[in-house]
Amino acid sequence: MAVAINPVDWGLQALAFVPMEYPTILGTDIAGEVVEVGSACSRLKTGDRVVGLATGFYSGRNCDHAFQKYPVVPEDFASGIPDSVSFEQAAVLPLGLFTAAVGLFQKDQLGLDLPSINPKPTGMTLLVWGGSSSVGSNAIQLALAAGYEVFTTCSKKNFEFVKRLGASQAFDYNDDNVVAQIVEALNGKSMPGIFDAIGEAAAIGFHGAVERCVEVASRSNCVKFIASAQRVPENLQGGDVEVKFIYPQRSDSELGKAIFGEFLPDALAKGKFIPAPDPEVVGHGLESVQVGLDSWRKGISAKKVVVGL
Ligand SMILES: NC(=O)c1ccc[n+]([C@@H]2O[C@H](COP(=O)([O-])OP(=O)(O)OC[C@H]3O[C@@H](n4cnc5c(N)ncnc54)[C@H](OP(=O)(O)O)[C@@H]3O)[C@@H](O)[C@H]2O)c1
């Protein structure tokens, strides 16, 4: 019923940065109704309203990609959604949510305790760099649900937005003094590391985020570890602050189950997690997917480009 556009879709189409067989199908984020279940499915049934992460990027099978009418989605990466959440709203979730979950909860990443709808405060603070992005909006909410206070960065115009998601303090990354401001605000607090939702990606205009995260980690009482949404630039490899690329995989099904199977359905139903950022629906029908890709390429701020089917 709805699909969302992610940077990776544009990257694969425009840059073909991994080997692909043509013709190919792209897409990771879908929301719709279950039309058929496999024999190993136990949680979801035909007719359920669901949101899911299409895993074709990992499997290489065309049937597993999102931009088609009947994609196949592993049950571990799909959640039932309540009637109060529209398909267009739900479609913003999958890749942003799961990328955030891998960076926050995988043992070889930040390794935080799993989220719950009644979190126990840890007394610690997490910095999420880029809270108005899709990955960042999910990271803020998941970190809160894991019991952390959250500081974040975004443009000034999005301060209200990230605070609505639960961040206690927001800093403008366009300000030359942003690192000093964050380090001062973190005085007396302890941090389990930093979540960089932006990373270094010159091709899509993201620049300087991870360097600033390294500076904050070096100058504050922070575990010297950064989970970064992009590959680690060479100049930041092997330094005092470890920076690790978040790479969600099809084999992460235990975490998939914990997030899509256990946490998300209940959290959505109880209003403890909101699909964010808001969808910007740019068209309808599969023929509008290209409109979606072109529209994403023009740049977005605290929105997710969505196509209704
Ligand atoms: N590792 C993975 O598997 C994986 C999966 C998904 C995405 N990613 C990567 O994660 C990054 C984010 O993806 P996305 O889909 O979440 O992006 P997005 O929603 O398209 O990002 C747009 C947002 O980025 C913010 N932003 C841009 N530059 C920034 C900076 N230097 N510091 C802080 N915020 C900045 C903007 O904030 P303002 O509008 O407030 O200025 C804007 O709201 C991309 O690099 C993407 O390729 C990786």
TrEMBL record:
Family annotation (InterPro entries): ADH-like_C, ADH-like_N, ER, GroES-like_sf, NAD(P)-bd_dom_sf, Trans-enoyl_RdTase-like
Record Gene3D superfamilies: Medium-chain alcohol dehydrogenases, catalytic domain, NAD(P)-binding Rossmann-like Domain
Domain Enoyl reductase (ER) stretches: 11-307
Gene Ontology molecular function, alphabetical: oxidoreductase activity, acting on NAD(P)H
Xref: CDD domains: enoyl_reductase_like (cd08249)
Domain of life where this protein originates: Eukaryota
Keywords assigned by UniProt, alphabetized: Oxidoreductase
SUPFAM superfamilies: GroES-like (SSF50129), NAD(P)-binding Rossmann-fold domains (SSF51735)
Annotated transmembrane regions: none
Keyword Mitochondrion: no
Subunit-structure text: Monomer.
Family that this chain belongs to: Belongs to the zinc-containing alcohol dehydrogenase family.
PANTHER family in the record: HYPOTHETICAL OXIDOREDUCTASE (EUROFUNG) (PTHR45348), ZINC-TYPE ALCOHOL DEHYDROGENASE-LIKE PROTEIN C2E1P3.01 (PTHR45348:SF2)
Protein name per UniProt: Zinc-binding oxidoreductase CipB
